[in-house]
Design brief:
single chain; alpha/beta; Rossmann fold; 5 strands
Length: 196
């Protein structure tokens, strides 16, 4: 067996643990604020719209599934839509208006004041996610942004009623791994506020 492979694997685990520990120290307060904001949203019967590309698209779908279905405990269904899943909308809007509009058109059509946009981008520079944030802000929809690195353009768009959860890491894999943990923290916190 190649011992270099074993070392590489071990390094991934150690780097991931270190990234999560640093993120806990930096993000715990804002993450608690995000949980309270999301709880108020879904408890009032509003919904969370989630979007992102690639692995972030998978995270958007994962999050929506755990709100509409369940996380770890049985509870009422909560309003969440992943804007990454309707292939007809994505291809029609992408073809007719351009890929940068695939999420913003959906936020315009489906979002209303009181909803939340969960905008996910490891770099913070995804143009279609940025356009979705612009539409959300025009409609009075709060934004919770999950980014990494320096937060990119999305970090600069966060206003007083929004929350920016920026993972303090540069490697995409570490950011994505921590985004998943953040999403599980959000789900657990919402359940805690709903169920005790």
């Amino acid at each position: 067996m190649d011992t270099n492979l074993i070392t590489r694997v071990g390094n991934h685990f150690e780097d991931s643990i270190a990234t999560k520990q640093k993120s806990k120290d930096v993000l715990a307060v804002d993450l608690a604020r995000a949980i309270e904001l999301m709880f108020q949203c879904v408890n009032a019967g509003a919904k969370i719209l989630a979007c992102g590309n690639g692995g972030s698209a998978a995270d958007a779908q994962h999050f929506a599934a755990e709100l509409v279905g369940r996380f770890e405990r049985e509870r009422k269904e909560l309003g969440a839509i992943a804007l990454t899943t309707d292939s007809s909308i994505l291809t029609a809007v992408g073809n007719d208006y351009g890929y940068d509009e695939i999420f913003s058109k959906q936020v315009s059509a489906l979002g209303k004041a009181g909803d939340i946009l969960l905008a996910i981008s490891t770099s913070g520079n995804s143009k279609n996610v940025i356009k979705a944030i612009e539409v959300a802000k025009s409609k009075g929809i709060a934004v919770i942004a999950l980014t990494g690195k320096d937060g990119g353009a999305m970090g600069k768009m966060i206003g007083a009623g929004d929350i920016h959860l920026c993972v303090p890491a540069d490697r995409t894999a570490r950011i994505q791994e921590t985004h998943l943990l953040i999403l599980h923290c959000l789900c657990d916190g919402i359940d805690y506020l709903l169920l005790g």
